[in-house]
């Protein structure tokens, strides 16, 4: 009668082959009380069982989480939080929009909870200098690496590309990062757009940041807005600007192992499927997986209200919580009949 050998007993007869593994196990067992909490112990025990009974050569990586704790993580895994926000901080001199208490709103935004614990923040339409400085100063402690606003000056950028025009309003885009910015480029659109947008150096900011061992490329932009004074509401100008973004990204010859993200005010209505899909095709990007509420402002899930009685250039809205009120008028050349 034949009997089967116990494979574990068979391994024990070959101490030379496993002596380093046993040494490692012993070392890890000694470190266990010092380096693991109760919550981590189950994962740790599974790890020890795996290396104890595995036949094959082990290939694993230990990644630091903090100075006292290590854990197993997939090498390709990266967790990145990006906040993109159109702030509508127009300059007081803008005859289209007038004064919307930009400095007060900037101060409140800098203290808000949702601006905390991000990796990167992409801000658009932060045109007003005083309001922008207030906001960036308040966020500087958590996001020490910041670009200047695009279209204001060439100083402080690694490169300025596109068609930078002097003595015109800035482009309103700023990128803030918790992680080191290794490269920053401002690009001013060659297509200056139409309507009110022609008075601004619109374009995009490009940054290359490093989070841990991962390189991430981010483009923050504000493309042509929908404008009733444009012959086609600005669609053609926006298409040309999206094409400029794509050509720039191609020119960087970025490795397919690195992440490229485009954020900001792309000004394309998702409900307009024709233009939306055209944007995805031009940029050659994958459609994101959308989650949460479908609109920026959801009155069904948000108890606070935003009430605009009417808007007129140069008027001063009064802020009471989230309620804005304006002097009553019946017609406005920018927004039409109210």
UniProtKB/TrEMBL annotation:
SUPFAM superfamilies: DNase I-like. It comes from the Bacteria. Keywords: Hydrolase. This is Sphingomyelin phosphodiesterase. The gene is sph_3. GO terms for cellular component: extracellular region. Coiled coil: none annotated. Gene3D superfamilies: Endonuclease/exonuclease/phosphatase. It comes from Leptospira interrogans serovar Pyrogenes str. 200701872. GO terms for molecular function: sphingomyelin phosphodiesterase activity. Signal peptide: none annotated.
């Amino acid at each position: 009668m034949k009997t089967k050998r116990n494979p574990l007993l068979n391994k024990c007869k070959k101490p030379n082959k496993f002596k380093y593994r046993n040494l490692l196990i012993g070392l890890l067992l000694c470190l266990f009380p010092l380096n693991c909490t109760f919550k981590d112990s189950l994962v740790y025990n599974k790890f020890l069982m795996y290396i104890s009974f595995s036949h094959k050569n082990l290939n694993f990586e230990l990644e630091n989480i903090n100075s006292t704790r290590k854990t197993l993580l997939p090498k390709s895994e990266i967790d990145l939080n990006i906040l993109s926000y159109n702030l509508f901080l127009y300059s007081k001199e803008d005859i289209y929009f007038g004064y919307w208490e930009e400095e007060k709103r900037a101060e409140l935004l800098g203290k808000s909870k949702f601006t905390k614990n991000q990796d990167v923040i992409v801000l658009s339409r932060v045109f007003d200098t005083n309001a922008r400085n207030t906001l960036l100063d308040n966020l500087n402690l958590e996001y020490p690496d910041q670009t200047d606003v695009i279209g204001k000056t060439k100083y402080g950028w690694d490169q300025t590309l596109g068609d930078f025009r002097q003595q015109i309003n800035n482009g309103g885009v700023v990128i803030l990062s918790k992680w080191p910015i290794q490269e920053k480029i401002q690009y001013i659109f060659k297509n200056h757009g139409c309507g009110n947008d022609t008075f601004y150096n619109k374009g995009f900011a490009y940054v290359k940041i490093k989070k841990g061992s991962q390189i991430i490329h981010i483009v923050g932009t504000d493309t042509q807005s929908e404008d009733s004074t444009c012959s086609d509401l600005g669609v053609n100008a926006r298409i040309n600007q999206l094409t400029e973004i794509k050509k720039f990204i191609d020119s960087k010859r970025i490795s397919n192992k690195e992440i490229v993200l485009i954020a900001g005010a792309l000004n394309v209505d998702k409900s307009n499927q024709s233009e939306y899909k055209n944007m995805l095709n031009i940029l050659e990007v994958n459609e994101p997986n959308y989650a949460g509420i479908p609109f920026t402002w959801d009155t069904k899930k948000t108890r606070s209200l935003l009430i605009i009685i009417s808007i007129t250039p140069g008027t001063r809205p009064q802020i009471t919580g989230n309620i804005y009120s304006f002097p009553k008028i019946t017609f406005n050349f920018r927004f039409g009949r109210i």
